[in-house]
Amino acid sequence: MKYPRVLRGLIAAALAAVAGMAQAQQAGARLLVGYPAGGAPDAVARVFAEHLRQVAGFPVVVENRAGATGKLAIDAVQAAPADGQTLMVMPASSLLLTPMVLKSAHYDAVRDFAPVSALAEYGFGVALGPAAQGATLAAFMAWAKGHADQANYATPGLGTPQHFLGAELARQGGTPLTHVPYRGGANAVTDVLGGQVAALITTEQLLVPYQAQGKLRAVLITSPQRNAKLPGVPTAREAGLPQLEAVDWFGLFAKAGTPADRLAQWQARADAVLASPAYRKAIADLGYALPAQPTAGLGSRLERERGQWSDRMRVSGFQATE
To answer: Do 208 and 230 form a contact (C-beta atoms < 8 A)?
Structure first.
């Protein structure tokens, strides 16, 4: 059957569009992670990718671009086309803090990225090692006032959320605490367990096994509610330190400028994944909580939390590095 020239053109355009969609679907998506394989962001990204493949029906590849506090992955997403095929899984605090603490990070976390979904949430915790005295935070702070040369705390590094929470703890408690930064959390844990550093500030879920084994004494968590796996540990608000209340989250982010329909597709996929009982169990097994509103209001949440981390950094006196 012969079609009029105009109709033939429309059919050709439709076929080209379908072919383009099929090609994009076959190409799949890349999820960039700014941290090494085996770490917490990588673990969450891989659990999400595993369940996303089942929902989306196309390949999903997790790529680790480790280095510079996640900046390498952030730079790669910025350099990629805004087509919804290259996204990243990143702790929200890292996305927000990196341009504050690194002069070389030339981006605006709210303006340059589109938050798609929160994937998992977690709080932080303060724990004491064998070098510290006291079974409670108040007892530790009282001991620290008389032992300034021993009153210190380990974190995964300068400019991290743990660093600024420790500085805020010292400020609120009126007790000088020396920050001991490490390159990553593993060495920080090792030295606190070995008695080289008095206290540790890390994520809540990492404290659970050490608390259960009696190797560390958790004395505070920053989540609004108590952790079911650390039932005896008070929240910051219960301890009279509401300024230390903080919840971080692993988020799925796209490049700003990604078409609205592509973002809506990604949000629908993320909602489907987060509703899956298998995903919910996998995240709980990793020690994280599911966000109550994974895709709603994330732009406002980012803006609010940027202000909170900026305030903590400012009062800590920290100056941005190269």
So the answer is: yes
DSSP-derived secondary structure letter, 72: H
Q: 185-232: per-residue pLDDT in tens?
A: 889 999 999 999 999 999 999 999 999 999 999 999 999 999 999 999
Token representation of residue 162: 């743990």
- Is the model's pLDDT at 110 over the cut of 50? yes
CB of 51 closer than 8 Å to CB of 278: yes
Contact between residue 177 and residue 152 where contact means Cβ atoms under 8 Å apart: yes
- Three-state secondary-structure class, residue 229: coil
Side-chain-side CA neighbours of residue 165 (13 Å): 31
What is the rounded distance in angstroms from the CA atom of residue 139 to the CA atom of residue 96?
33
d(CA 322, CA 319) in angstroms, rounded, equals 10
Count Cβ atoms below 10 Å from residue 170 Cβ, excluding itself: 19
What residue type is 10 in one-letter code?
L
- Arithmetic mean of pLDDT, 149-162: 95
Cβ neighbours of residue 180 under 8 Å, at least 6 residues apart?
Answer: 152, 153, 154, 155, 188, 191, 197
Check if the beta carbon of residue 37 is closer than 8 Å to that of residue 70: no
Here the tokens at position 12 are 């050709």
Which of these, 93, 65, 67, lies nearest to 79 by C-alpha position? Answer: 65
Amino acid at 211: Q
Kind and range of the H or E run holding 180: strand 178-181
Q: Which burial class, exposed, middle or buried, applies to 173 when counting CB atoms under 10 A from its CB (0-12, 13-18, 19+)?
A: middle
Beta-carbon contacts of residue 225 (< 8 Å; ≥ 6 apart):
235
Which strand (E) or helix (H) includes residue 126? strand 113-128
For residue 1, give both structure tokens. 């059957």
- Tell me how far apart the alpha carbons of residues 118 and 294 are, in angstroms, rounded to a whole number: 5
Determine what percent of the chain falls in helix, strand and coil, rounding each to the nearest 5.
Answer: 45, 20, 35
Q: From CA 250, how far away is CA 122, in angstroms rounded?
A: 9
Picking from 163, 104, 138, 121, the residue whose alpha carbon sits closest to that of residue 288 is 121
